[in-house]
Specification:
Elements: H1 6-21, E1 24-34, E2 53-61, E3 66-72, E4 78-82, E5 115-116, E6 120-124, E7 127-131, E8 177-179, E9 188-190, E10 212-215, E11 218-225, E12 234-242, E13 246-249, E14 252-257, E15 262-268, E16 278-280, E17 285-286, E18 290-291, E19 306-307, E20 318-319, E21 334-335, H2 351-354, E22 360-361, E23 367-370, E24 377-382, E25 397-403, E26 408-413, E27 421-426, E28 433-441, E29 444-452
Parallel strand pairs: 15-16, 18-19, 20-21, 22-29
Antiparallel strand pairs: 1-2, 2-12, 3-11, 3-14, 4-10, 4-13, 5-12, 6-7, 7-8, 9-11, 13-17, 14-15, 23-24, 24-27, 25-26, 25-28, 28-29
Length: 453
Amino acid sequence: MKTFCASFLFLFLFLFSVSLRAQIESVFVETYYISDAADATDTTGGGLAAGTKTYRIFIDLKAGSKIKKIYGDQNHALKFSGTADFFNNKADGQSFAKDFSKNRYAENTVALDTWITLGQTTKLAAQTYFGIPKDQDANGSFIGGANNDGGSAAIADGLLINADPLLGIPLTTSDGMDTMVTIPESWADYGFKDFSTGDDSTIFGSIIPGSQFISYNAGLLNSGVAGVIPQSNHVLVAQLTTMGDIAFELNLEVEEFDGVTTQIVKYVANDSILLADEIVSPFLTYPSICGCLDPDYLEYSNNYACGNIDSCQTLIVFGCTDTMACNYDPMANFNLPSLCCYIGHCADRDISLVCPVLKSYSPAIKFDIYPNPAQTIVNILINTDNPFASQSLPPDTKYAVYNSLGELLNEKNLGVVSAEIIETIDISGYSNGLYFFRLTNGENYSCKYFIKN
């Protein structure tokens, strides 16, 4: 017999999962632009074939959090890769978006350059711009069309005017850049440019074409940056332009404020080696790894970024799987040792209740508990379709209330229940937490849980 219901573990795992994902709510890739034949005419910025896609990577943070660093270290590589080389504008491209002058975005295909950043995209005098998803950008655009010089072929209508629905909002309508009040300071970087020459031979520079960046010693950091819109808090970390498909693994240092204290938390893409101050976020790997996100199944893991119902195969059955216990459950596949009872040891519970010889669980005993959660009282509605009430000698109906340790707190014999009844139980003296209600009828029983808060 099991006195714990499946919902108890579901609640625990759900809260545990949420606590690990709390600050990084998601990572999403925006299709920023798709180059067309007009863009392909430009030779000043370098070859850019029609159909080349420009992607932007945003970190969706919980409101109030900031990103201070994107990095790779000895245990967690920083990775960006594509199935084709990345495009870098050979005339005015930059490794870091913060180094762009705003007026350079008007030149040829500069706006499609491949780079890495922490929010900032350009600066002009007192105006500093930051990345924002195009569908949240309401201040228009200084990119493309009339704002573009037409490239080497001097296209009259300017470049970057493609309005293909696959790229979402056209760049001539929304450029995905806006200003905000709090500007990050103390920028620093390592592992991208040659220390002595300042040249960048990675995928973020135009010296050597490449389709892959993997580093165990690289980082871009500043004093901390949040999103342009505080509530949505989307922080741009990279722009990648390629004819191929992209993939990445990111590691971040996030500044979190709980209303009282500020702390720095490291979020990493994988747990192959995980230090005490690091938390794995499944969102930091792309393409996303999907699997079972239903804690009622053995295949569940909070290390999946998205759900795949086909991955949930084995429904969890809780119980005692120790064959030496008097309440051994051969149907259980998830052991809860605290449930196991032995002769002389049953965690201060009544072993005659925990290990009855004849009593068995019966879903036919139907009842409801409300309100749930509750504060001072709970009501037990016992339905009239109780099949045992029609017996010639109907058994008494009894109930018992247990805490999460299985300790008996309250019990009562309701006698023979032959009609729908409501039993009210005073729980004002109970501590906040999870409780179990068991209703028995003769040799049969059923259970449910309720929460006191």
